[in-house]
Fold:
Amino acid sequence: MSSFLRACAQLSRKSVRSVHTNSLITVCRGGLLGTGPTGAATGAAAARRRYLTTPSGDNAGTSPRSSTGKGSSRVLLLVLSSSIVSGLIGFKLASSPAGGLMSAETGAPEPPAFGTPSDFEHAIAELREAFSHDPDVVSTDPEDLRIHGFSDYDYRPGCLPSVVFYPNSTEDVVRMVNIATKYKMPVIPYSGATSLEGQIRSHTVGGICVDMSGMDRILEIHEEDSDLVCQPGAKWMDINDTLKEKGIPLFFPLDPGPGATIGGMLSTGCSGTNAVRYGTAKAEWFLNATVVLPSGEVIKTRRRSRKSSAGFDTTKLFIGAEGTLGIVTEVTIRLAPVLPTTVAVVQFPDVRKATEAVIEVMNQGVGIRKSSPPPHPASTSRDPYATPAECVELVDDRFMAATNKFGVSTRKWPVKDSLFFKFQGPSAASLKETAKVVKRIVEKHGGTGFELARSEKEAADLWQDRKNAHYAGMALLEGAKGYGTDVCVPVSKLPELVYETKKDMAQSGIVSTIVGHVGDGNFHAQLLFRNDEEYKKVREIVDRMVHRAIALDGTCTGEHGVGVGKKKYLVEELGAGTVELMKTIKRTIDPLGLFNPGKLYPDGRDDNDPGTGTRSAGKQA
Ligand SMILES: Cc1cc2nc3c(=O)[nH]c(=O)nc-3n(C[C@H](O)[C@H](O)[C@H](O)COP(=O)(O)OP(=O)(O)OC[C@H]3O[C@@H](n4cnc5c(N)ncnc54)[C@H](O)[C@@H]3O)c2cc1C
Structure:
C-alpha cells in the first residue's frame, strides 16, 4: 500500500513519456471528409440503434457484474483495488527506463505513449476474434468511421477513429477495454453525438470509438420510487415518451439537445431549459452508475436508495468526466412528477431589460415552489403569491426572426429580444395566476406583448422552437458553419454579460443568435462564419465572452462541458491547484491516459483545436 501511495504521489508530479505518434499515423482529416451528414442521427450508427423497452421490473440486460447485491463496502473495495492496480501500472510505466517522466525541454509532465499503428492493427484483429460470434460489433467500414469522426455540432475539423466498437453489454465493454489497454489504444466513448465542444472526436492517432447506441434499453421502472434503471444509450426523449405511453405520470427533467443519451448527459454534466426548476446533472438526478474503469474493473457507484451518506460521492466523479475516467454501462435516474405546464412569451427593448426582469421574477420564488405558497419573506411584491416557473429562456431579436422563418410554431412574433417562460402548476387556474404575476413584473421592466400560448399544442410547438434554436440559428446564413458555445454567471451579473457580449457581436458584424437559460445565469451564443476571416473574429468574440464570464465570477461553460473547446480556460477559472487535483485523479484511474485523450484536462496544447487559418467553410463537419 505504501508503495502505491508513493506511486500516486509521484504520478501527481510526473507523467509518462510522450511518443509523437502523429508522425507514425495520420488519420486526422482536417476538412474534406466532413462535408456529408454526420453520425448524430443518420447513417449506419442510427441504423444500428434499437429501442427495446422491457416491462417494469424486468432485470434482463442488467450486467451480472453490476448486480445490486453488492454492499457499499464492496464498492469501496473495488474502487480502491482498481485504483491500486491502476496506480501501480501507472507507476511502473512512469518509472520504466524506456518511459522517461518529464519533458527534457520544459520539465512539464508529458502525455502518455500510445501504441503504434501496427499495435492498433493487432488490437483490431483481436477485437474481431473476441467478437467473431457477432461481426456487427466491430466495424472498420469507411463510412462508419467517417460518421463517427465528424459532427455537425463541432466547428473543428474531425478525426477518424481506427475502428468503431458497438457493445451490447458491460462484459463486451470490459473485453474491449482489456484489448485497448494491451495495445495502448485510445478509447473514445460515443453516444448521442450531440455534444458541442468536441468531446467525441477521435484522437489524432485514431483509437476505438465505443458507440453505446446499442445499449439503449430501459431495464427497470420503479414508479413507486420515482426512479428508473437504464442502459447509457437510452435517450432522454425516448425515456419520457415511454413513460407517457405507459401512462406513468413521471418524467426525467434534464433536457439537453434532442437525441442526447443518459450516458452522454451524465458524462457532460448537462442540464437544459428545466434547470431553473430541477437543477442540473450535478444535482441528484443520477442515483448511481455502473462503470467500466480503464483497468477493466467494473464498479457500481452506489445503490438505488434516494439518499446515501456512505463516503464521498463517486457517482459525481463521473458526472462531467466526459468519458475520461471510465465507460458508463448502466445508470439509475430519478424521475419527477409530470405537472400541467404552459408557455408565455414577452418582448423587451433590449436584453438588459429582459435579464433584469428575470432576476426579479426569480427572486419572487420562481422555480422553487410548485404551487401557490405564501409570499417570500424578502419579496417586495404586493402580490400574495409566489410564481412557479419551470423554465425562463432568453432569446434575442435574431432568434425571433429565425423562428418566424424556420420554426414549427405558426404564430409570427415581434422581432425583439424576448423571454420565453414555461410555467408549471397543479391546475390550469394556478398557471393563469402565475402568468398574472409574471406579466406584472415583466411590464415593470419594459416588457410588452405578454402572451400565453393559446393551446397545449401551441405551447409544445413554441417550446420545440426554443429547443431547436441551434437549427433555426444556422439557417440565418446560408452555407455558414455555426460556433455554438455557452457560459454561465451568477444571475445578477447576467445583464452585464449579455449586454456586453451582444454589443461585441454587433460591432464585429458577425451574424449570431443568443439564447439562454437565463433563469440560472446560463446563456448560449451561436456565431456563424463562412470563411477564415469570420472564423477568426468568432474565436475572438468567444474568447472575450469567456474571460468576461470568468471575471464576473462565472464559468467558461454552464452545461456544454469542456471537451477540447474550453480546456484552455480551466486554470483561469478553477485555479492551478484544482486542475492539478483533477489531473491527479485522471492519472490514478487512467495511468495509460487512454480514455478520451486530449479532452477536458488542459495540457498546454491545442492540437485538437487548431484555431484560425486552417479551414474553409463547407469543408468541415
Ligand atoms: C440542438 C442542441 C441543443 C442542445 N442543448 C443543450 C442544453 O440545453 N443543455 C445541455 O447541457 N446541452 C445541450 N446540448 C449539448 C448536448 O446535447 C449535451 O452535451 C448532451 O449531454 C450530450 O449527450 P450525448 O448523448 O449526445 O453525448 P455524446 O455527444 O455522445 O458524448 C458526450 C461526452 O460523453 C462521453 N460519453 C458518452 N457516452 C458515454 C458513456 N456511456 N460512458 C462514458 N462517457 C460517455 C463522450 O465521450 C463525450 O465526452 C445541445 C446540443 C444540441 C445539438
DSSP finds 19 helices and 20 strands in the chain. Confidence is low (pLDDT under 50) at residues 1-104, 367-387, 607-621. The pocket of flavin-adenine dinucleotide is lined by residues 153, 188-196, 199-200, 212, 232, 256-257, 260-261, 263-265, 267-268, 270-272, 322-323, 327-328, 470, 559-561, 596 (CB under 6 Å).
